Amino acid sequence: MNQLEKLKKLKKEKNAIILAHYYQNADVQDVADYVGDSYYLSEVGRDSDADIIVYCGVKFMAESAKILSPEKKVLFPAHGDATCCMEHQATPGLVLEMKKNHPNAKVVTYINSSSEVKAVSDACCTSSSAVKIVENIDADEIIFVPDQNLASYVAEQTDKKIIPFDGQCNVHHKVTLENIKKLIEEHGEVEILAHPECQKEIRDISTYVGSTAGILNYAKTSPNKEFIVVTERGIQHQLKKDSPEKSFYFPYMICSPMKRVFIETIIDALENEKCEIVMDEELIKKAKVSLLNMHKYAGG
């Protein structure tokens, strides 16, 4: 029995599904039942009738799945530390201090944050839902945690006052205008597709700015054949599957925590039901409010 057959057998026996983010290794994406961005996967996990969710991503994603479906067993088959850098940037204490300084503001927290920060937030958001949630939440002032670049992007799309936290995605934030100009010199004036976690100088020269799902959709429907893509390189796998005839050029953007799930670790976790996400019930209860509000304000 090969790996794929074994995985198929285990999933059937245990009523399990495998979820994978677009930034995962290509072979992991290929064995997943659902591949998507954070918002889509949060809906799939929440609505699934599976008993076990195997989450291939980074830790906050697996924890969010557990918070939304505490009755399900969530397995996180990462080898080593697979934690988003932004999970460590904001803390509950820092967020509460910002709330104290801005008592009329609501806290909208990017899903790329710890469960403890979600527990002191009014709503979570993803890059695809951030603007809609900020627009729909009942407040004129928004404390936006933790990504300053996504906060800047949202501020450009709304009349509400955005109060940003001083955090960022290390992978997106480090990309400079010079990096993109070099790609333009190499490949010509092609369309530029950027994630809103990029700095403003990158967003300002981009043809399209959006989430991973948004970038995929734009590239698929565009009549153009060449693109500079400014987000984590793992998305290239789905881009090429959707549009094999098109060319995609990337600056060096690798999120190493996203590359720590392997087919072997998935099989091991599912076979032995190990690497389970276990969380305090009170923390789940508190953090769930902000995640439910994410779906409420985003209309999902």
Automatic annotation (TrEMBL):
Q: Do you know which InterPro entries this protein is assigned to? A: NadA, NadA_sf
Q: Tell me its EC number(s), please.
A: 2.5.1.72
Q: In which pathway does it act?
A: Cofactor biosynthesis; NAD(+) biosynthesis; quinolinate from iminoaspartate: step 1/1
SUPFAM superfamilies in UniProt = NadA-like
Q: Does the keyword Iron apply?
A: yes
Taxonomy, superkingdom: Bacteria
| Enzyme class at the top of the EC tree | transferase
Asked if the Swiss-Prot or TrEMBL record annotates the protein with the keyword Calcium, the reply is no
- Which prosthetic group or cofactor does it need? [4Fe-4S] cluster
The record's listing under Pfam families reads: NadA
Q: Which UniProt keywords apply?
A: 4Fe-4S, Iron, Iron-sulfur, Metal-binding, Pyridine nucleotide biosynthesis, Transferase
Show the PANTHER family listed in the entry. Answer: QUINOLINATE SYNTHASE, CHLOROPLASTIC (PTHR30573:SF0), QUINOLINATE SYNTHETASE A (PTHR30573)
UniProt-recorded name of the protein: Quinolinate synthase
Q: What organism, scientifically named, is this protein from?
A: Psychrilyobacter piezotolerans
